[in-house]
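Exercise 7b. Backbone tokens:
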């Protein structure tokens, strides 16, 4: 029986770890978590914010995900979007999910990320 999503893995090109670290820690406010040594030798980096973990793994023939994406629930979505814009990340708002405010952004290697917050007093969906 499934009990939770442990992490989401996104792909990244070789040599992009420094850009990813800057984005995921300084822009998104996540904390880098150490990879086990045997996995660290493969490159990439892992990040966490509370129970949310995103793993970025090196893929030699990298192509950013354009449709597939993690959906990251946030609080204070307006302030969070402003934080991203102030740090040079484009924010694209989308009003097509009932009961939520949400926007999309891309990480430095082009992976699509969705940020969403339920409207107060509305039931959660998804």
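Sequence design result:
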């Amino acid at each position: 029986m499934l009990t939770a999503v442990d992490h989401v893995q996104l792909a990244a090109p070789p040599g992009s770890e420094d850009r990813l670290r800057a984005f995921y820690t300084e822009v998104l406010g996540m904390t880098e978590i150490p990879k086990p040594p045997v996995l660290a030798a493969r490159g990439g980096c892992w990040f966490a914010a509370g129970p949310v973990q995103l793993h970025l793994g090196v893929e030699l023939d990298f192509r950013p995900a354009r449709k597939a994406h993690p959906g990251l629930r946030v609080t204070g979505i307006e302030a969070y979007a402003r934080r991203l814009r102030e740090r040079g990340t484009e924010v694209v708002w989308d009003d097509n999910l009932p009961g939520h405010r949400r926007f999309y952004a891309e990480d430095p290697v082009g992976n699509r990320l969705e940020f969403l917050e339920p409207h107060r007093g509305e039931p959660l969906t998804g």
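Instructor comment: The mean pLDDT is 93. The chain is about 20% helix and 30% strand.
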